[in-house]
Amino acid sequence: MDTIKAINSRRSIKSFDKNHKMTQQEIIQLLELAILSPTSYNIQNWRFVTITDQSIKDKLSELSHGQQHVSEASLVIILCADLNSWDKDPQRYWENIPEEPRIALINSLRNSYSGKPGLQRDEAMRSCGMAAQTIMIAARSMGYDTCPMKGFDYNKVGGAINLPDDHVISMMVVVGKRTKDPSPRGGQLPLSEITFKNHF
Amino acid sequence: MDTIKAINSRRSIKSFDKNHKMTQQEIIQLLELAILSPTSYNIQNWRFVTITDQSIKDKLSELSHGQQHVSEASLVIILCADLNSWDKDPQRYWENIPEEPRIALINSLRNSYSGKPGLQRDEAMRSCGMAAQTIMIAARSMGYDTCPMKGFDYNKVGGAINLPDDHVISMMVVVGKRTKDPSPRGGQLPLSEITFKNHF
User: Fold this and answer.
1) Which member of A10, A160, A199 has the closest CB to residue B162?
2) Which of A54, A118, B19, B125 has its CA 20 to 30 A from that of B150?
């Protein structure tokens, strides 16, 4: 599908065919595209928990104020981030570049993130945001629809997926075959109100 | 351009043709696609500051540790967010839906964000992350390249753009015509290390 069409036709869909199953190949394709999303210093801090089992989707639906589309979706992806990825063998992130710039990058990376929990968390949200949008646009082009979600109990979902202590959940994206078209967009702000030339 | 090709070929580019100018129409097209990105409760919390003036790009380059591609890019977009967008006439965000669900949404929105500065900031980073990736993929499909950036002096850039007190900068995306192809990807983590079935 053309990129502009995929971006234009992406909508948050709330009704999916609960009998539809994605193939393993489709799920892998989606994840392989997701991990082409950029991250600061290439730290690849995102971690993706994928769920296709009906009983777990039903549990996640319960933890999302009973929202049915979590149960109905073919795939639920919980986008998490490792807050300490910057400190875990960072040479892996630039193994294909010469040693000298690699060492300089590692030093710069440590200077940037060490002792800065606020920045580590910002990076988790930013990176997952970018990856989530890749997933949503890619899914659209593969004939699927999606819904990004944060309306769930983060603590309980964290418990259900054994979220490590130094990880956070950023958001959830559900993927499936739509059974109902969305309503017109709710109320878009005009470009003139949210864009600024040179300064506010 | 096909969506999958746009996602695959998006790379962080560091060398742009400094003589290339984007048309106003292209810039508007890019921004109109960006604002189709989802936001929680449709709060549309992003704010986009666009810069094409050479003297301001040069200043931003200085504030980005002298990184040349900020000067060379045709367009610099500073992705900001209004932390209080949830509280500013939220009926605008669902003006096209009936009154009863609209009022319920407004109440739910206020419950979600009121008195939660951490969540407001998370939302800024998430929303801007999603919009940034839309911009980068859309730009690719329009024949441009991009580089997402956070390596700049946030306080000084905030000052330069008159950032309002209740706004934050999330990141910067520079857009332009590449003059040098990127090196191979630095070191991608295998899917097996960053994806998990059902739980960690």
Assistant:
1) A199
2) B19
